[in-house]
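Section 3.1: Structural characterization of target chains.
Under the original work plan, the team committed to producing a structural model for every single-chain target entering the pipeline before any wet-lab resources were allocated. The record below documents one such target. The sequence was received from the expression subgroup and is listed exactly as submitted; it comprises 149 residues.
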Amino acid sequence: MSEGRATSTARSRGYPGYWQLEYLHDEMADALWLADLVIGRAGATTLAELEALGKRAVLIPLPATVSRGDQLDNAAAYARRHLGQCIVVPDDDKLHGGASLAKACMELAADLGRINRERPGPETIHRAADLIAQETVAAAKPGRTRRAR
C-alpha cells in the first residue's frame, strides 16, 4: 500500500491514527478488516462488506442528481438498521466544508476505545459472503423468490 501525499500533512497537524491511502485494490479487504470506522458511499457491495465485518460507518451516498438515487435509499435503510453504528452525511454544499463529516466521525469514534468488540473470524466472513452470493444469484433468476429467514 502506498500512502497518499496528505498523510504526512495530516500527521504533522496532529491527527493521530489518520491514514490517507492511494486507491486500494487487492488491499481493500485488509484495510476494511483493520478499520475501526469506515467513510464511504452507500452502494450495495459496500454495505454488504460493512455488514459482514460489523463496521461503524459514515455513509455519503451519491446524490440523486448524479445517480439513480438508490444509494440514498440504501444509506437510509442501513442507518435505520444500525442505529449508533452508522451516520448518513448528505453529499451537498455543507459537506465541502468538512464540518458535518468531521462531526459524524467524532460521534461514531467517541467510544471506540471503550468497546471491546470481537472482529469476526474468517469463517464468519466466508459464510456471510456465501450468503450474499446465494441471495444475489437467487434474485437474478427469473421466477425465483428469496428464501425465508
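The chain has two domains: 25-117, 120-149.
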